[in-house]
Prior knowledge:
Layout: E1 2-5, H1 12-21, E2 26-30, H2 42-53, E3 57-61, H3 65-73, E4 77-80, E5 85-87, H4 101-115, H5 134-146, H6 153-188, E6 190-197, E7 199-211, E8 223-225, E9 227-240, E10 243-259, E11 266-268, E12 273-275, E13 281-284, E14 288-290, E15 294-296, E16 299-301, E17 303-314, E18 323-327, H7 336-339, E19 340-348, E20 351-357, H8 360-384, E21 397-407, E22 415-428, H9 431-442, E23 449-464, E24 469-482, H10 486-493, H11 498-506, E25 511-519, E26 533-537
Parallel strand pairs: 1-2, 2-3, 3-4, 6-26, 7-8
Antiparallel strand pairs: 4-5, 6-25, 7-24, 9-22, 10-17, 10-19, 10-20, 11-14, 12-13, 13-17, 15-16, 18-19, 21-22, 23-24
Amino acid sequence: xxxxxxxxxxxxxxxxxxxxxxxxxxxxxxxxxxxxxxxxxxxxxxxxxxxxxxxxxxxxxxxxxxxxxxxxxxxxxxxxxxxxxxxxxxxxxxxxxxxxxxxxxxxxxxxxxxxxxxxxxxxxxxxxxxxxxxxxxxxxxxxxxxxxxxxxxxxxxxxxxxxxxxxxxxxxxxxxxxxxxxxxxxxxxxxxxxxxxxxxxxxxxxxxxxxxxxxxxxxxxxxxxxxxxxxxxxxxxxxxxxxxxxxxxxxxxxxxxxxxxxxxxxxxxxxxxxxxxxxxxxxxxxxxxxxxxxxxxxxxxxxxxxxxxxxxxxxxxxxxxxxxxxxxxxxxxxxxxxxxxxxxxxxxxxxxxxxxxxxxxxxxxxxxxxxxxxxxxxxxxxxxxxxxxxxxxxxxxxxxxxxxxxxxxxxxxxxxxxxxxxxxxxxxxxxxxxxxxxxxxxxxxxxxxxxxxxxxxxxxxxxxxxxxxxxxxxxxxxxxxxxxxxxxxxxxxxxxxxxxxxxxxxxxxxxxxxxxxxxxxxxxxxxxxxxxxxxxxx
Length: 538
């Protein structure tokens, strides 16, 4: 059993608080003389009631007989610390002798008043005080609730404090519930709106002009922007020669000519000779100018140029390389002889004997095949996709062969080579520009409309690549509907009542019918969050 020592200045509120805060269920209150508790027996009734509510069993220990009497009258165990036994005293224990009749009557009145107090436990069958009618108790309870000022001062103050705290807690709870409810409703409310607009057919057939010289659609001129595209392609292929003959071919290759002589450039004419260390001669195919050397920190840094050379004689013996230095015989006997030289990487093609040789028929066939290959390649590129999403209709492009050259020299397998170069020209346009032109035509009769669907067929294209123009016929078949911006409409109806939304929808131009729903159904206003509104347009 836990003992709690009560000070003389502890009021009933402090004592009750100590009881409730104590973990033990059996508690002994040690009460001294002249404490605030002995001012009224109601204090002990209150202690008893609150202890019972908290599930605590309370004993009162005191040397003050008045305290022990009040405790017993309140159905609390009373213990005298010196006698070490429970007191069985009642109010009559402290009644004066019979000859003091007046004081005895006063104590009886006090006993009756205590028994009828609202703090007194009316359900206790062992109480010694005088029982009063339950109806009277209820009347007194109601009187107490309506007039708390008639309670003992300290008890009434505690009661009012407790009542104020409860009111504040209730108010805060209601506020929290309301705010949470609003948040939940706003978080989960949603609206579903379906709007159907009237549709009208659209048909058109006529000649239009796509031009690279206009920047915007022009309804009166039936023209709109276009672009001219040029795509080059080159190709080299080998073809088998069908004839043979004796040939004498000279080796050819590339030579790098150096100037380590001075900062002055040096011209060399075609056929200028370059000699290998073993005496083989090669000649320049064309004239060149060797740039001047650089002079840095007093030192000469050679300059160079690359040129084509051909062997002076035919035969495989001139198939050489690499050779670090070839001299220029024309400079022999002068300071330039050692300062102008060539460096040879490789020469090839030197041959004497019988070898394959292409006939005129071989060459003509090769040219046709190279042309077909270039055309197929360019058309393949077209099939992969048009540039910048431009539309290139049938008949709006052409392929032109720029050059075909034949190298009649055959390799060891008897093949000769053909080089071909071609380009594809096309006039293209963006279908969006064409649709805008047709929409302008449609809006002459139906303003504020857009194409719900549109099918286009192109015919009779006639390109003019010099002028950059394409003339063609278009057949259009589509459906027109009302232009409607979902985002703007959604912004307009945010947070509005369902009745206001119906009124706004009714004012939409070209409206056929509509339906708007709101969930939860008892709400009147749409969500303020655009993401909670779904709009379907047909």
